[in-house]
Amino acid sequence: MEVAAAAAKDVCICRCFTPFLSMKAILVKEFGAPDVLALETVPDPVPGWEQVIVQIAAAGVNPVDTYIRSGAYAVKPEIPYTPGADGAGVISALGGGVSGLRTGDRVYVTGSLSGTYAERAVCSFQHVHPLPASLSFAQGAALGVPYTTAHLAVFARGRALAGERVLIHGGTGGVGLAAIQLARAAGLTVLATGGSAAGRTLAAAQGAHAVFDHHQPGYLDEILLHTAGRGVDLIIEMLANVNLGKDLTLLAPGGRVAIVGSRGPVEINPRDAMTRSATILGVMLFAASPAERTCITAALGAGLENGSLRPVIAREFPLADAAAAHRVVMEPGAAGKVVLIP
C-alpha cells in the first residue's frame, strides 16, 4: 500500500482543458528597479501531488511584490522567479490527491508556488478558494494579501470587538478598504483617513462612518473631537514611520496600534504609550499561524457570500506593463487595488 501511494504521488493524474506547451509570464532575472520585470515565454506548468493549475484571469499587485523585486525584502526568492501571490481565474488542471475542486471552477488564490504574474500558475490546493459569481476575476485577485492582512490586523492582532472605535490610518488602498469593510461588518465604529478627495469619498462609500484628510494640519484634533475626546480603541497603521508617534496621542485608555506597514524608523514619546496603557502590535501576514489562516479563510468566505466584502479595483494593467503597475502601486493617493490582466 505504501509503495502504491508513493507511486501515485510520483505519477499524478491531471485533468486538463487543453494541453499547452508554453505560456507568457513575468520573469525577474536580477533584483532592481521595476524595469527588471520582463515578459518572457516559459514552459507551461504541470501540477504535482496536491497541486492545482489556475488559468490566471487577473493577478493582484501588492507593495510587498515591489519590496521583493527590489531585493529589499528580508526573504529573497531564487532568481529567476515570477512574482505574485494573489490571483483569480479558472482551474485548468488538477494534480493527484486533490479533492473538492474541479476543472472549470472559478477560484481566487492566496498563494502560488510558481507566481501569479503569468498566464497560468501552480498553487497548492490549500491556497485555492471558490470565487462567487457575483465577483469579477479582478476583484478575486484583490482578495489574497489585502483581505487576509486586514483581517489579521483588525481581529487576530488588534483584538477588535463590536462597539469599539477603530481608525484605519490610510484607508484608501487595498488593505485599508478591506479593513473598513471588515470592521464595519463586525459592528465597529469606523474612522478612516485619506490623502485625496476621491479616496476619502471611496472610504466613506465602503463603510467608514467618518473620513479625515491626513494632509490637513488639524486632522488629529478633528479625530479626537469626533470621539468626544476619548480617542479610538484601535488604529490600523499603514505608514508607521510617519504616523506612529501621532497614533499614540489618539488612543483611548488601553488602546492598540496594529502596524501593517512602515518604510523606515520612527521616533516616539514612550510616555504617550505609558499614560494610555497602550499596546503596539506588529502585523506580518507570513507569520500568521495555520489556525489564524483557517479562521481568516472562513471569515472571508462568509463575507463574500453575504456581500459585505467587495474589493475595489483602482486600475488594471496588461501583464506586459507590470513595471508600470509596480510604480503605481507605490504612489500616494491610492483608491483601490492594482491588478494585472494576462
Description:
- Helix 4 crosses helix 5 and helix 4 packs across helix 10.
- It is globular and about 65 Å long.
- The N terminus is likely disordered.
- It has 342 residues and is an alpha/beta fold.
- The strands form 3 sheets. Strands 3, 4, 5, 6, 7, 14 and 15 form a 7-stranded mixed β-sheet that branches.
- The chain has 2 domains: 172 residues, Quinone Oxidoreductase, Chain A, domain 1 (Alpha-Beta Complex); 142 residues, Rossmann fold (3-Layer(aba) Sandwich).
- Strand 8, helix 5 and strand 9 form a beta-alpha-beta unit.
- The protein contains 11 helices and 15 strands.
Please give a handful of descriptors for the protein shown:
342 residues; alpha/beta; Quinone Oxidoreductase, Chain A, domain 1; Rossmann fold; 6-stranded parallel sheet; 11 helices
